Amino acid sequence: MIELxxxxxxxxxxxxxxxxxxxxxxxxxxxxxxxxxxxxxxxxMPTVAFVAPNGPEPCDMAPYGYQWFSLxxxxxxxxLAGVQAAAPVVNAFLDRELERHGLGPxxxxxxxxxxxTMTSLYTVPRRPTPVAGVLGYSGALxxxxxxxxxxxxxxxxxxxxxTADPVVPFQAMAAAEQVLTSAGIxxxxxxxxxxxxxxxxxxxxxxxxxxxxxxxx
Length: 217
Prior knowledge:
α4 links the parallel β6 and β7 (133-137). The protein is globular, with a radius of gyration of 16 Å. The mean pLDDT is 96. The relative contact order is 0.15. It has helices spanning 32-35, 38-41, 76-101, 115-123, 144-150, 171-182, 201-215; strands at 8-9, 19-24, 48-51, 57-58, 66-67, 108-113, 133-137, 157-162, 187-192. It is an alpha/beta fold. The strands form two sheets. A seven-stranded mixed beta sheet has the order 1-3-2-6-7-8-9, with helices on both faces. It has one domain: Rossmann fold. α3 crosses α4 and α5 packs parallel to α6 (171-182). Belongs to the AB hydrolase superfamily. AB hydrolase 2 family.
């Protein structure tokens, strides 16, 4: 199995971290795409370490960057198979990072963007023990039909999505909220008015508030 790695930041206070934030990028990007947020959040969470692993596969739709799974075929079956293959790789990375820092899963939060959100929302509820939470930007829920039956962990989720997103439809947030709620997973949602496929200042502000709360830092 491929071992993930990527850029790291913090803890800003130095020493051993009290908590860990793992950031999963979108398709065609890499860990550097999201680790740039860490210096903005770190002053508010100085005891938290951040890591943004590169996806396990080179992007097959661009000459650079990585992907968690292929999006060349966007059928439900193909995307489900893709995220099912990515989940064990992500889980192995999460377990290794927790062991590395001597932290329990209650001190781990995931932040996803786009395909990274899809991967997080599939993987995390199916872990044997819950992490502290999932913050998902501009994503969607894959594997909705089986989530209620397969969910072994139900950590809180915050979803943030731009109303003008041309890549992942804004309606995906409400669809994910409905399924997650039905599975007993607590969800908060926030619509960023006029935002395309990205993260704005409101999203960053809400996100760090969520992370501070669920990680108790």
